[in-house]
Amino acid sequence: xxxTMKIGLVRHFEVTLGIPNRQWMxxxxxxxxxxxxxxxxxRLGSVDLGDVRWTRCISSDSPxxxxxxxxxxxxxxxxxxxxxxxxxxxxxxxxxxMPFPFWKMMLRIAWATSHRSQRDAxxxxxxxxxxxxxxxxxxxxxxxxxxxxxxxxxxxRKELLRQGFKGPKFTVPENGKLYLFEKP
Length: 184
Fold this sequence. Notes:
single chain; alpha/beta; two-stranded antiparallel ribbon; 5 helices; 36% helix; globular
């Protein structure tokens, strides 16, 4: 009898740090906010893991992802920096002030266009996604729960589909929700 391999993707629980309330921010202030976000607490919740017998859990080593994994998975958890979001770099060195939404948009454009400020981080991130999808996940054949971040999940989903997994579509995955991928 053939078994179906299952991969469950879960984005960490919601972070308590809100959007900056400062109207105009410098590149240094944006970098500080990103660092604060990385260390912020989360709002613990619950995740419906379905009727799947999860035999392995791999989590990003970031505190928010690891705390989420510990809250939803009762067994041992393997944590790895491979699942982290890319380390975005400031796109301007000058003391320019812009509203937070504009900085956010500029960082996304810089990432999408492989701007020199983001190129190394993007290359390393995409290599991590491919290595994880092609070398770490398939080697066990186990039903594996993966707890990580939105960006990583978006790119990992594409790799899983390339490998023949079937699973849901999502643009930005919700915090604390299971996205189940299966491969016969």
